[in-house]
Design a protein that fits this description.
By secondary structure, this protein is α+β, with helices and mostly antiparallel strands. It folds into two domains: 226 residues, no CATH class; 94 residues, Sandwich (lipopolysaccharide transport protein A fold). The chain is elongated and about 95 Å long. It starts with a helix and ends with a helix.
C-alpha cells in the first residue's frame, strides 16, 4: 500500500505544480491587461509593474490552489483510469477512499496551511499591491464623509453630522444626543463645528440642552467651546466606509465588524467577507471530494476534459459565491449563509457523487 501512496502522490504533485503555475499566470495576466492602459498613461516602468506582480503573487497562489487541485486530481485519476490501472487497483480489494486517501491528506493540509498563508502572507502583500497600484495610477482616496449618524457608548450617545473632514478631523453641523441606560434624555448638543482634541470632541459655537437640578425644565447653555470626556468616539468611526476586509488580519477584521455594529453603520458586507475567509479555507477539501469522482469519468481527451471541468466548476463556484455574498450584503440572507452557502451547496452533491463513483 505504501508503494501505491508514493505513486499517486508523485503523479499528483508534478501535475499540481504545473497547474498552479498555469492558473497563477492567468490571474497575473488578467490583472496586468486590465490595468495596462492606465500604466501606459501614467508612464509606469516595467520594473514597477513587476513589483506590483510580485506583491500580487501570494494572492494569485491562494486563488489558484482550488482549481489547480481540482485539475491535478481529476487528471491523475483520469490517467490511471484510461490506462486501466484503476481496474487492477480496485480489483485487488482497495477501495477508492483508501486509494485517494493521501490526496485527501494533502487537501486537508492545503486547507489548514492556506488559512495561515492568507493570514500572515497574502493580506500584507495584497495590501502593499493595492497601495502601490493606487500610487502608480495616481488614485486618490478621500475618507471624508457626509450626512453621518453614529451610535456609540452602549447606544447611549448618538452623533449626527452634516460633514466629516478626515484631513482636519473635524465635524460640521453636528448634533449629539446623550441618553441614560434606560433611554431617557440626558443632554443634547448642537454645534457648528467639533474638533478632535486630546481624545475627545471639542464643540465650537454650541448650544447645550440639559435638565435643571430639579429635572423639571430643560436648560440651555451657549458656549464657544464645550467638551465632555464621554464624547470620545474616535474620528475613524466617522470616516467613509471604504476599508477592505481582505486587507485586514483576523483580529483587525473582527474588531472592524464590531466597530461598525456599535456605530450603527452597515456591517453586513464586512461581516460576510470576514466569515468568507474561514469558508474559503475549506475549499481545497471540497475540491478534493469533487475531483475524486471526476477522474473516473474521463477516458478520452483527459487533459482537455480535466482542464475544462476544473475551469467550469471554478467559474460556477465563484459565480454562486458572488451571488450569495451580494445577497448577504443586501440583507436578503444572513452573512453566515452568504459566506458558507457555496461551500455547503457543493459539499452535499460531492458526497453523493463520491458514494456512486466507479470503484
Amino acid at each position: 500500500m505504501k508503494i501505491l501512496n508514493v505513486m499517486i502522490v508523485k503523479s499528483f504533485l508534478s501535475v499540481f505544480l504545473f497547474a498552479l503555475l498555469f492558473f497563477v499566470l492567468i490571474l497575473q495576466l488578467v490583472d496586468l491587461f486590465s490595468n495596462l492602459w492606465r500604466y501606459l498613461n501614467n508612464d509606469v516602468t516595467i520594473f514597477q509593474i513587476l513589483q506590483v506582480a510580485y506583491f500580487y503573487m501570494p494572492k494569485c497562489i491562494a486563488f489558484s490552489i482550488p482549481p489547480a487541485l481540482l485539475f491535478s486530481i481529476s487528471f491523475t485519476l483520469g490517467n490511471y483510469y484510461s490506462n486501466n490501472e484503476l481496474i487492477s487497483i480496485f480489483g485487488s480489494g482497495i477501495s477508492l477512499f483508501r486509494f485517494i486517501f493521501p490526496l485527501w491528506v494533502i487537501g486537508f493540509f492545503l486547507s489548514a496551511g492556506g488559512f495561515f498563508f492568507d493570514e500572515y502572507v497574502v493580506i500584507d502583500s495584497f495590501k502593499q499591491k493595492n497601495e502601490m497600484t493606487k500610487t502608480l495610477l495616481k488614485q486618490q482616496v478621500s475618507f471624508s464623509n457626509t450626512n453621518i449618524t453614529v451610535l456609540s457608548r452602549n447606544s447611549t450617545v448618538i452623533y449626527q453630522a452634516d460633514y466629516y473632514n478626515d484631513k482636519n478631523q473635524t465635524l460640521s453641523g453636528v448634533t449629539v444626543l446623550e441618553l441614560d441606560t434606560e433611554g431617557k434624555f440626558v443632554q443634547r448638543i448642537d454645534a457648528e463645528q467639533a474638533t478632535w482634541k486630546e481624545g475627545v470632541w471639542e464643540f465650537h459655537r454650541s448650544r447645550v440642552f440639559f435638565w435643571d437640578e430639579q429635572n423639571e425644565f430643560i436648560t440651555e447653555l451657549k458656549s464657544d467651546s464645550f467638551l465632555k470626556e464621554q464624547y470620545d468616539e474616535p474620528p475613524s468611526t466617522f470616516r467613509k466606509t471604504i476599508r477592505n476586509v481582505e486587507e485586514m488580519r483576523m483580529k483587525e477584521a473582527r474588531e472592524w465588524v464590531g466597530t461598525l455594529k456599535r456605530a450603527g453603520l452597515p456591517f453586513r458586507g464586512a461581516q460576510t467577507e470576514y466569515y468568507k475567509r474561514f469558508a474559503f479555507a475549506f475549499t481545497p477539501i471540497i475540491v478534493t471530494f469533487i475531483s475524486s469522482v471526476l477522474g473516473g469519468r474521463f477516458r478520452k481527451n483527459i487533459l482537455l476534459m480535466s482542464l475544462l471541468a476544473s475551469l467550469v466548476i471554478t467559474v460556477v463556484y465563484y459565480v454562486i459565491q458572488m451571488i450569495l455574498v451580494l445577497f448577504a450584503k443586501l440583507g436578503y440572507i444572513p452573512p453566515t449563509a452568504g459566506a458558507w452557502g457555496t461551500l455547503i451547496f457543493f459539499f452535499i452533491p460531492s458526497i453523493w457523487l463520491f458514494r456512486i463513483a466507479r470503484t
